[in-house]
Amino acid sequence: MISARLIKDLERRGFALDFPSYGSVEEEIIEILKEKNSRLYLALPILLMEKFDYSIVKKKLGKGSLKEFDRIISIANKIFESEGIDNLHLKGIAKITPGKKEISYYADSFKEHLKRKSEEDTLKGQVAIRSKLSTNKALAELFAPAKIRIMGQIFRHEPLTNTELKYYYRSIRPLIHAILHEDARAYLKIVESLRKN
Predict the structure, then answer these.
(1) Are residues 12 and 57 in the same domain?
(2) 177 is in which domain, residue-wise?
(3) Structural domain includes residue 134
(4) Total structural domains in the chain?
(5) 52 lies in some domain
(6) Distance between terminal CA atoms of the chain?
(7) 42 vs 106: CA distance, rounded Å
(8) In this model, does residue 109 exceed pLDDT 80?
(9) Phi, psi dihedral angles at 14 (to 5 degrees)
(10) 43 and 83 in one domain?
(11) Residues 6+ apart with CB under 8 A from 2
């Protein structure tokens, strides 16, 4: 088995190993519980935010693992209530009363995950905005605003008027074909590389 430390270090260096993903939340929950690793159990409240079929998990677990799972469901219930997260799908499943220290331990990990996820989503949003801005800047170098607007309509699958269609076929399409022409692109790459020298 490949060590987690090695996998993380390789990912940090830009090399990612592809592993098969789980088909369902239930499979992932079962796999975590079978590992019997308390560090992995901290991920269960995150998975329990999604709706899952308790009976499927129950069938695949032994009594010890099921008791552990019920305890974590109770902890997740308390965390979700305090965070204002919908937990109706967990109601009535487990009736174990966890200790305050244990709830606090899981709650800290859960909040850290939510914070990290929020930061990742913000970063992805910023990357998307920057990518869109650089695309718009590149298009603005080649096309007039009216042409960009018509291409945007096509991109968003919006209908064009007859005048816009004629304008597209007469003015925009020839330029697009010229940009996509392989030989022209190769020629421009050579010109650009020689210009730098």
Answers:
(1) yes
(2) 143-196
(3) no
(4) 2
(5) yes
(6) 49
(7) 6
(8) yes
(9) 100, 0
(10) yes
(11) 17
Tell me which of 31-35, 167-171, 190-194 is least confident. Answer: 190-194
**Whether the predicted pLDDT of 193 surpasses 90:** no
Among residues 112, 114, 46, the alpha carbon closest in space to that of 75 is found at 46
Mean pLDDT of 12-32: 78
**Residues 59-80: pLDDT tens digits?**
888 888 888 888 888 888 888 8
Same domain, yes or no: 32 and 113: yes
| Angle subtended at Cα 111 by Cα 91 and Cα 56, rounded to the nearest 5 degrees | 35
- Decide if 16 is inside a domain: yes
Residue 70 shares a structural domain with residue 117:
yes
Is 111 within the bounds of a domain?
yes
Do 102 and 9 belong to one domain?
A: yes
* pLDDT given for residue 164 in this prediction: 92
- Quote the pLDDT of residue 9: 79
Three-state helix/strand/coil letters over the chain: CCCHHHHHHHHHCCCCCCCCCCCCHHHHHHHHHHHCCHHHHCCHHHHCCCCCCHHHHHHHCCHHHHHHHHHHHHHHHHHHHHHCCCCHHHCCCCCCCCCHHHHHHHHHHHHHHHHHHHHHHHHHHHHHHHHHHHHHHHHHHHCCHHHHHHHHHHHCCCCCCHHHHHHHHHHHHHHHHHHHCHHHHHHHHHHHHHHHC
The token pair at 178 is 């010229």
